[in-house]
Design goal:
The protein has 195 residues and is an alpha+beta fold. It is built from four helices and nine strands; from the N terminus they run E-E-H-E-E-E-H-E-E-H-H-E-E.
């Protein structure tokens, strides 16, 4: 009987085994139904092999200022939310593989959408020219290690790769480590960094 090593809720033994057996590609299928006005409902079908029967429904709507009713997040808001969720998951997976235990993690994702947003017309430019990610993390590692994890997480972030958008990461580390190597004093524990 083997013991499982769980770090950040991830079975790292299974993670290492899964890395060598990942498919070359994952097919994601969606079907979007127009509900009226700017409201839609998208059904997402199985997104991975051996996950048949796994479906989710996601509603979307635009705010009143964009002729919607504001009953659900807009598609660009869902995209930014997906970026934040994907990056957070990527960060947790990279940290687990590096034996870094996370006590808390919060990712803030934001994007500015300007006049490029169409109102029945043709796009005049990219909808999301750039996104910002802010990270607050409390973990058992020095800031330099967390910065490296952040860079690797962004490289492995499937939504950033899918969108091919310019993503900037701004991290804020608050009192991350009490006795981690490389931390000399309390001031070293609060640090801002950009990658």
């Amino acid at each position: 009987m083997s013991l499982k090593t769980i770090i950040n809720g991830i079975d790292v033994g299974r993670q290492r085994g899964a890395a060598s057996s990942l498919p070359d590609r994952v097919d994601i299928t969606t079907s979007t139904e127009w509900l009226g006005g700017t409201q839609t409902r998208t059904v997402v079908a199985a997104a991975a092999p051996r996950q048949s029967g796994r479906t989710f429904a996601i509603d979307a709507d635009y705010p009143d200022a964009l002729l919607g009713s504001g009953m659900a997040p807009s598609p660009p808001e869902l995209l930014v939310a997906a970026l934040g969720a994907s990056f957070a998951t990527s960060f947790v997976l990279v940290a687990a593989a590096a034996d870094v235990r996370i006590e808390s993690l919060r990712v803030y994702a934001e994007a500015s959408i300007g006049a490029e947003e169409p109102l029945g017309g043709v796009h005049r430019g990219p909808m999301l020219p750039a996104c910002q990610l802010g990270i607050e993390v409390h973990a058992n590692a020095a800031a330099a290690v967390l910065e490296k994890i952040s860079r690797q997480a962004l490289e492995g972030c499937s939504v950033a790769a899918l969108c091919r958008i310019n993503v900037h990461v701004q991290m804020q580390f608050k009192d991350n480590v009490r006795d981690a190597p490389g931390v000399r004093n309390k001031q070293d524990n609060v640090r801002r960094s950009e990658t």
